[in-house]
From TrEMBL:
Pfam families associated with the record: AAA_3 (PF07726), AAA_lid_2 (PF17863)
Superkingdom, taxonomy of origin: Bacteria
Native species: Magnetospirillum sulfuroxidans
Ranges where the ATPase AAA-3 domain occurs: 51-184
The protein's name in its UniProt record: MoxR family ATPase
Domain annotation ChlI/MoxR AAA lid: ranges: 257-324
Amino acid sequence: MNPSPHGTDLEHEAADLNTLIVKARAEIAQVIFGQDRVIDETLITLLAGGHALLIGVPGLAKTRLVQTLGSVLGLAEKRVQFTPDLMPADILGSEVMEEASDGTRSFRFIRGPVFCQLLMADEINRASPRTQAALLQAMQEGRVSIAGHYHDLPQPFHVLATQNPLEQEGTYPLPEAQLDRFLMQIDVGYPEFEAERRMLIATTGTTETVAQPVLAAGQLLAAQTLVRQLPVGDSVVDAILTLVRAGRRETSQIADVQRHVAWGPGPRAAQALMLAARARALLDGRLAPSVDDVIILAPPILRHRMALSYSARADGVAVDHIIARLIESVA
């Protein structure tokens, strides 16, 4: 095994972090009922150092998930409700003129809600493209530019954005460049019967379970560093490249892709699969990812990085159908 920068055996360090992460997952599951897949995919996103787009109808605990993550992982979290009149300064902050007692004037920067470690961008597609672009810079660079000056964001910094798939009136579709910045698109569905029953009983009484802190921000950063150190076999690398390149019309041998895909996943999709597969291995207590990790993570990582052609819409072909064909190429 390769030693970590701290001189600790990589395997022991991974085992210690896995213990904490499993405990964190259990704490979150006590509050978020029937969404085990969503919890796992969100944790994988954070362990990989990325951002997530949560898509689901109202009332599926998306907001509560973000609040619980902040508490359990020891992250300073904030929430911004995106609306059509939201301006970039409402997110990033702005400079104000202040006058001292001696009459001298100077500008002081007042930080916006983006200066946190876990930002919930609620209904992100309701904001104007200008506001979306301001958040894009923060997501990509980890800093914001105000009046020609750069201001670094806290570390770690993650955006968990939500979209309501039912209401499209008055929304601004996210540009492809910004969608690609999200490591995963996590589809949040309805819970199973027993999970919804437990939720109903647990949340309508006089008391509710509160998730307890398990990690600190520094430990999450250490976990993100460790994820990048986990070894990846050639078979996994080949599976990632085969999967991603099979989704592009220019390099695909799959008839459905050539007919129905307008544009496919770029190199950032392969990077996301590599990091997410490592993070999933760490979450499961394994030292190295497998091809199965790539297959399981392909839908949430690829579905927002592909656009279908008009013929696909006419034929009723969905993105998940195309991804299923891609998976067949590496399964």
